[in-house]
Amino acid sequence: MATLLQQSGGARVEVVKPSLFSRRIEKVNVFVDIVCLYLRIKMIEESELTKMAWVLSYMQEGVAKAWKNNQLDELSKGESEIEIEKELFRKMRNKFGKTVEEKRKIE
Prior knowledge:
The chain is built from 6 helices and no strands. The protein is mainly α. It has one domain (22-106). The protein is globular. The termini are far apart.
């Protein structure tokens, strides 16, 4: 798919950037979907580390900010080698994608 996007002028395609992510359960899938599309079209030639830094830069509020800081700490200590589209998004969905019922049980 990436090759197809490059061949068809993918870099010239306008893609919406995500809104800041604060952890709202109903927004996690929308956030991940927008980010995936943006990365595949606009950042296809960037390193995994650059892509991850860009994604994490959108986590500026509340619990999402604390989680982002933990991920950055793990990376700086060499304790985490996240492949952006496999691990980072899986971790985000696991952390923030709980259903409303699960959230109520936790609270």
